[in-house]
């Protein structure tokens, strides 16, 4: 097996230590940048031709060579492994020289791996961010479908994990829809900052050749060119931002998972998860475990870890490029892989779950979730809210002692606490009325929630066009 020659052998007399080479090489993972690195090389080749560095013939030969490399990689499974290389950049150059000879040795004129690697990384990320955003959108769509499928399902809403006030299942779904909308906004912003061309910064000081950087940017679809060569080769803010945006996606996915894990437990029995996303126990025959959701919750930590790893790598770096920066790739690659599979898993879980509407309705009507309603009822009768709150607290204590819900108390018993309570109190305490009252923007009144559902659907549909 031949090996790609190092790109820097000239001033060395001794061989590279094997263990060090293994430590230093990044080809095992940065081969993922192969396609984009070739793309950027084609644009650089054009720029060198226009700068008068390459003849037309040379630039044509280089570009044809690069295209051939792309094709070979596509059909030859062993193409990468047959030529052990330091990194993806050395690999491509070695393959090019193998293919077209000396002309290939001219391609690296006026550039460094320092501006090359961050250019490739940005090109790669641009596509991946779009892909992630699409899958977040799929999760949003699935949330809307889950809401619509059981539009009238109610849930007890919680604070402190104590039953608080009734809500609609669709309201819960839309809460997560909102989180994912913000996530997509953040991903868009990161995309915009990723979309700046560093190529032409060379090693650190800029290039000595007449490379039209703006033209290169246009060719590669970048919105602009970096303004400072030192910053351009050492900036990895965009990687931190991406992992940050992904961390928040994972926070949201993890909270959603936690909710659903609880709801699926025998204690709650609010939802039924599909067999397709659950596992059994090797020991306990009755078990149906929500593994998909637990894995999503568990993998959040991994993404947060990558963010800390990246920040720590960057914090003490002297200007400009340092090899520490090679650590950026595995952190980002794993983040991207993890978030994509977690989002897909979440979509499958949501698509296949069923809300046990009877159970959730029962839960939403037990545990004094309408106590606030009773206080509001008294407020309507001109009792100051603080007094009403106090009175209802006492009524709840009484109801607990009777082992009854508020609606099951006798009117006369309630009137012992407040003369203002009349027959119409029972309607005010009904689940329907409790929900319908929350009728301001953002509230859980069915009218509002259905409106919000329509709005959410429209906003997704608008993007499709
Ligand atoms: N594999 C390197 C990385 O990922 C490429 C850049 C190497 N540059 C250098 N001057 N050694 O950062």
Structural features:
Ribonucleotide Reductase Protein R1, domain 1; binds arginine; Fumarase C, Chain B, domain 1; mainly alpha; two-stranded parallel sheet; Fumarase C, Chain A, domain 2; about 475 residues
Written description of the protein model:
This protein has 465 residues and is mainly α. It has three domains: 16-106, Fumarase/aspartase (N-terminal domain) (Fumarase C, Chain B, domain 1), CATH 1.10.275; 120-363, Up-down Bundle (Fumarase C, Chain A, domain 2), CATH 1.20.200; 365-464, Fumarase/aspartase (C-terminal domain) (Ribonucleotide Reductase Protein R1, domain 1, Orthogonal Bundle), CATH 1.10.40. The chain is 62% helix and 5% strand. The chain is built from 19 helices and six strands. It has helices spanning 18-24, 27-30, 34-50, 56-75, 88-100, 113-149, 169-194, 213-220, 229-234, 237-264, 291-315, 328-352, 357-364, 371-380, 385-402, 411-415, 425-428, 431-436, 446-464; strands at residues 154-159, 162-168, 196-197, 224-225, 271-272, 354-355. The strands form three sheets. It has a two-stranded antiparallel ribbon with strand order 1-2. The protein has a two-stranded parallel sheet with strand order 3-4. Helix 3 packs antiparallel against helix 4, helix 6 (113-149) packs parallel to helix 12 and helix 7 (169-194) packs parallel to helix 19 (446-464). It starts with 17 loop residues before the first helix and ends with a helix. The structure holds arginine (ARG). Arginine is lined by residues 26, 30, 87, 113-114, 117, 321, 323, 325-326, 329.
């Amino acid at each position: 097996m031949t090996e790609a020659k190092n790109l820097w052998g000239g001033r060395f007399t001794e061989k590279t230590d094997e263990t060090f080479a293994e430590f230093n090489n990044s080809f095992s993972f940065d081969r993922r940048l192969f396609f984009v690195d070739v793309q950027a090389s084609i644009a650089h080749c054009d720029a060198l031709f226009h700068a008068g560095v390459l003849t037309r013939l040379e630039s044509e030969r280089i570009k044809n060579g690069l295209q051939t490399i792309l094709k070979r990689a596509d059909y030859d499974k062993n193409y990468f492994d047959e030529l052990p290389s330091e990194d993806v950049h050395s690999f491509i150059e070695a393959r090019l020289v193998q293919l077209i000879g000396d002309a290939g040795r001219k391609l690296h004129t006026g550039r460094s791996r320092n501006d090359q690697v961050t250019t490739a990384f940005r090109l790669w990320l641009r596509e991946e961010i779009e892909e992630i955003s699409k899958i977040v959108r799929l999760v949003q769509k699935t949330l809307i479908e889950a809401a619509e499928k059981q539009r009238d399902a109610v849930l007890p809403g919680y604070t402190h994990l104590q039953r608080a006030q009734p809500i609609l299942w669709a309201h819960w779904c839309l809460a997560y829809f909102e989180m994912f909308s913000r996530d997509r906004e953040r991903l868009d912003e990161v995309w915009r900052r990723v979309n700046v061309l560093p190529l032409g910064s060379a090693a650190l000081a800029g290039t000595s050749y007449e490379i039209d950087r703006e033209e290169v940017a246009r060719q590669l679809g970048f919105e602009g060119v970096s303004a400072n060569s030192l910053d351009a080769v050492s900036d990895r803010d965009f990687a931190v931002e991406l992992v940050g945006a992904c961390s928040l996606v994972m926070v949201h996915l993890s909270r959603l998972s936690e909710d659903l894990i609880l709801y699926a437990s025998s204690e709650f029995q609010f939802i039924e998860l599909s067999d397709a996303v659950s596992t059994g126990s090797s020991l306990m025959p009755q078990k149906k475990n929500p593994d998909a959701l637990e894995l999503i919750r568990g993998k959040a930590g991994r993404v947060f870890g990558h963010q800390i790893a990246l920040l720590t790598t960057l914090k003490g770096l002297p200007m400009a490029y340092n090899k520490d920066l090679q650590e950026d790739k595995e952190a980002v690659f794993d983040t991207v892989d993890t978030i994509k599979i977690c989002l897909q898993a979440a979509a499958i879980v949501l698509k296949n779950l069923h809300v046990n509407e009877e159970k959730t309705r029962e839960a939403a009507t037990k545990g004094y979730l309408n106590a606030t309603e009773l206080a509001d009822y008294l407020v309507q009768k001109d009792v100051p809210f603080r007094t009403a709150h106090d009175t209802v607290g006492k009524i709840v204590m009484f109801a607990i002692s009777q082992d009854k819900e508020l609606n099951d108390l006798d009117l006369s018993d309630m009137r012992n606490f407040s003369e203002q309570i009349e027959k119409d109190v029972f309607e005010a305490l009904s689940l329907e009325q409790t929900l319908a009252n929350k009728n301001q923007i953002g509230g859980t009144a069915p009218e509002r929630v259905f409106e919000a559902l329509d709005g959410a659907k429209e906003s997704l549909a608008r993007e499709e066009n």
